[in-house]
Amino acid sequence: MTAQPRPLSRQRWLIPVLVVVISLTVGVGLLARDLYTRPEAAPTQPVVSDSPTSVAPEQQPGSPVVEVTPDVFAHPQYQSVRQVLQGYFDSINDRDYPKWTSVVTRERAKTKTPAEWKKDYQSTRDGSILVYRVEPSTPATLRVLVAFTSTQDVEDAPVYLPEGCIRWRLVLPLRLESGSWRVDTTDGGTNPEHERC
Asked: Where are the bilayer-spanning segments (predicted)?
């Protein structure tokens, strides 16, 4: 008597093998798709310049992006300084008092109530911002030489220069507070340079 082939036993091991092969193929395909479609993180290119960008009068105050000189770009505190100054100028341009208080020292934040701060900057727009130099003052303080242009309603301009567009050049003190650099109060002896645009 001839033995009958066992088709059921072959099917029993063939089905799990096919399931494993198909699962692996699908898994590898999904992984490959994810790798090929994942956008690469664009490297943040710093804006490095030797002098402020020239801006036409109708485009004042210019770009709100904080630019730096090559010397500042090479400074070990470059990233931190640029980040805090970008937050500082953004808070003014966006009329964002809570953001401003997050990038200034506690002492500086006490100098203005929200209402006073909003009144001071109600029409101000800052741009053409260039950081020229960063100098250590003490281990926990820095002095940052920065130039920028501000536009504002003439009635909101300083009384000593009632202009709608002013170019500023001043030293901003930074202090290390709660582990990050923040814009500190200026001492009375520093007089900012300023001229009409």
From this structure: 13-32
User: Alpha-carbon distance 105 to 177, whole Å?
Assistant: 7
Instruction: Give domain status of residue 52, yes or no.
Output: no
Go through the chain and tell me how many residues it has: 197
CATH at residue 156: 3.10.450.100
Q: Which two tokens stand for residue 72?
A: 């500042």
DSSP for 107-162? HHHTT--HHHHHHHTTT-EEEEEEEEEEEEEETTEEEEEEEEEEE--GGGS-TTS-
Q: Is residue 90 part of a domain?
A: yes
Count of domains for the chain: 1
Query: Is 165 within the bounds of a domain?
Result: yes
Q: What is the pLDDT of residues 165-180, one digit of tens each?
A: 999 999 999 999 989 9
Tens digit of pLDDT for each residue in 44-75? 455 666 555 667 888 999 999 999 999 999 99
- pTM of structure: 0.72
